[in-house]
Design a protein that fits this description.
The protein has one domain: 5'-nuclease (Rossmann fold). Helix 6 links the parallel strand 5 and strand 6. The strands form three sheets. The chain has a two-stranded antiparallel sheet with strand order 1-2. A two-stranded parallel ribbon has the order 3-4. By secondary structure, it is α/β, with parallel strands linked by helices.
Length: 124
Amino acid sequence: MRRPVRGHYHEAPAAARLRRAVEEGMPVVVPGVCLQELLSGVRTTQQFARLASLMAPYPVLVATRADHVAAARIANACRGAGIAVGTVDALIAAITAQHRARLLTTDSDFQRIALHCAVALEPY
């Protein structure tokens, strides 16, 4: 993700971390629901095609029954602690935790979710 800053493009910290991970040969996978969220957020068909093309090399993790059960447990644990968690965020956390992966996200909700489950966040 690059944003114009005074006529120059600035790489967002999370995007820079992702780029470094790819350059370092770290395995990068995408939960299917994250791919859907990314593609649902674009404004034009050209942006959609470009983003779909950029994401094509990365394997997609499809949620299993166990992931959905784990997501429900995460949502219930968070709700019990007074934290509102959306269904999709709970599923993303569950998929990440079930695969013992690290989640690279700019969504600060995951910092609160991580207090109540085994999801590991990737710093950037």
